[in-house]
Design goal:
Helix content is 58%, strand content 6%. The chain has a 4-stranded mixed β-sheet with strand order 1-2-4-3. Strands 5-6 form a two-stranded parallel ribbon. It has a two-stranded antiparallel sheet with strand order 7-8. The protein is flat, with a radius of gyration of 32 Å.
Length: 559
């Protein structure tokens, strides 16, 4: 009964949102009729046309708002996901059916796995929720990866609580209405005319009223679903799941940024099944305290007055305030991911639903190879501006016997650059990777030895620094200010060349480092002395001897 009354209130408010447009149009028509039939009867026809034109200009945004509102908020088919059948995933479906049984509601018609740290239920109800429709349950694979089986049961109990409370049917009008008003406001913001701004402000104020009036309904739905979860799976298990979900969200965001998409600049992705599957490695390598620290470092989304969900702290406090039910929570319980049959096949199939089309053309590499590929791309990006500046300085200075960089000896001579001749320049540019610099000779750019020779020849501050990329305002700097401004770029360039040399000599090794930051591990003597050696090379009075001593050692002390 309460859900029906809330749905009726939302329906009335939605009607008011649409009625506002009708009233505005009626007011415009009435004003035009009054002006044209009484006030401006004997006035200039141009003035009368001006009044009509002004009314049309005001009516257009009103009509736009009404038409933007009509299709808005309709139930979509839900997020992209991989549909799994009871035959393919009997264990997971058994958990879903048991959760539905405990909630005294029907099982969903479809179960879809997604790539989000989330679970959701939808129902395509008809006649504004008077008639039931097909139900779908969405489960995020990252959620399965990070929760135990009992915690997953708490999540399922929460979602089926929405079904048993008819939140997805009658109260769904509220959620569709919230989507509709936000869509309409966005439609007005997309136009910057004065008329749109005036009319749009009216819709914005009504939208705020609607969101505020329906917020309590949306939040009560979530709190009621939390209580249902605590009833069916236990207070402590439900509280543990609520605490765990925000941590998993932050950890997953970090995983996607720092690991899953690590190789994109190198036109590469993790091996098939590992784009989503690799998340388990990060969770296994980090303690709960480390995950909490990670979540804190990424910050929490700032709440808004119109959030449909109560703050997690409030939800958690209400659950923990419930009387003890005697049920205990086991943090070492079976992982929820173990409920999946053929886990690798599922993770591989999920990629086809969640990765963009461009991913099909990318290389698939194991994690260490992926870290190495990204490290080479990064090092080349740091090194290329310096190498290009040195090449131009050498051409300008025309040093005796140094018409260009050496190309004798190995495949790349003394350039210290890994051979990348098999990389397609067009493909690399399409992925945001700098292609060969045609103007400056591409892969024939000077390497580490050439750069050090140029520094020893006195070209660093007189010739090379002036040819480094810099913003226009920095070109006005002189003396020490100019050197201090460009020094970090020179430092990075030398570091990039060192990394490329060590990769070439196979003395730098990739470290995926699930508990820290992926990158290269250098030989011990380089780890200890590289920074100070590069500092000396880019000092006001450059000294390359420390760096040359490290190079002479071959960087092979660790072998």
């Amino acid at each position: 009964m309460i859900a029906s009354l809330r749905a009726l209130r939302a329906l009335v408010l939605l009607g008011g949102f649409y009625l506002m447009g009708v009233v505005l149009l009626a007011a415009l028509l009435a004003a035009d009729w009054l002006l044209l039939s009484s006030v401006l009867v004997n006035r200039s026809p141009y003035l009368m046309l001006g009044v009509v034109f002004a009314s049309v200009m005001l009516a257009v945004p009103v009509l736009r708002g009404m038409f933007a509102f009509l299709p808005a908020g309709r139930r979509s088919s839900g997020p992209e996901g991989l549909a799994v059948t009871p035959e393919a995933q009997p264990t997971l479906w058994a958990e879903v059916r048991e959760a539905a049984r405990k909630a005294c509601t029907a099982e969903p018609d479809a179960l879809l796995l997604t790539a989000d740290v989330n679970a959701a239920v939808t129902e395509r109800a008809r006649l504004l929720g008077l008639l039931a429709g097909p139900r779908s349950l969405y489960l995020g694979v990252p959620l399965l990866t990070g929760l135990t089986a009992p915690e997953l049961r708490a999540v399922l109990a929460h979602e089926f609580g929405h079904f048993s409370n008819q939140d997805t049917r009658l109260a769904g009008i509220t959620m569709r209405g919230r989507a509709a008003v936000l869509h309409t406001v966005d439609a007005f913001r997309a136009h910057d005319s004065r008329a749109h701004a005036v009319i749009g402000n009216l819709y914005v104020h009504y939208a705020r009223f609607f969101l505020t009036a329906t917020q309590s309904s949306a939040r009560q739905q979530e709190l009621a679903a939390d209580r249902a979860a605590a009833r069916h799976t236990g207070r402590d298990t439900t509280a543990s799941a609520l605490r765990r979900v925000p941590l998993l969200g932050a950890a997953h965001d970090h995983y996607i940024d720092a690991y899953a998409t690590l190789g994109v600049p190198a036109h590469a992705l993790p091996s098939v099944g590992e784009f989503h599957g690799g998340f388990r490695h990060l969770l296994a390598a980090r303690s709960p305290e480390a995950l909490t620290e990670l979540a804190g470092s990424r910050g929490t989304p700032r709440p808004t007055p119109y959030d449909s969900h109560p703050p997690m702290s409030e939800r958690l406090a209400l659950i923990e305030a419930l009387p003890s039910d005697g049920a205990t929570h086991d943090p070492a319980a079976t992982p929820a991911l173990s409920l999946l049959h053929d886990r690798h096949g599922v993770l591989a199939a999920l990629e086809s639903y969640t990765l963009p089309a461009a991913a099909a053309g990318m290389r698939r590499l194991e994690w260490p190879e992926l870290v190495m590929a990204r490290s080479v791309v990064d090092a080349s990006g740091w090194a290329d501006p310096l190498s290009t500046a040195v090449r131009r300085a050498l051409r300008s200075a025309a040093l005796p016997g140094r018409a260009g960089p050496s190309t004798s000896g190995s495949a790349e001579g003394t350039s210290g650059r890994p051979d990348t001749s098999d990389v397609d320049a067009t493909d690399s540019r399409a992925c945001g990777i700098p292609g060969p610099d045609v103007e400056d000779g591409g892969s024939d750019l000077p390497g580490l030895d050439d750069v050090l020779d140029a520094i020893d020849a006195g070209l660093l501050w007189m010739e090379v620094a002036d040819r480094m990329p810099k913003p226009a305002r920095a070109s006005r700097l002189t003396g020490r200010s100019a050197r201090n401004f460009i020094r970090p770029a020179l430092w990075d360039g030398l570091a990039g060349l060192v990394y490329l040399r060590l990769v070439e000599e196979k003395t730098a090794h990739p470290d995926v480092s699930w508990s820290g930051e992926a990158g290269l591990v250098l030989p011990e003597e380089w780890e200890k002395g590289m920074d100070s050696a590069i500092d000396a090379a880019v000092a006001d009075t450059p000294d390359t001897k420390p760096l040359r001593r490290l190079l002479a050692g071959g960087g092979r002390a660790s072998e």
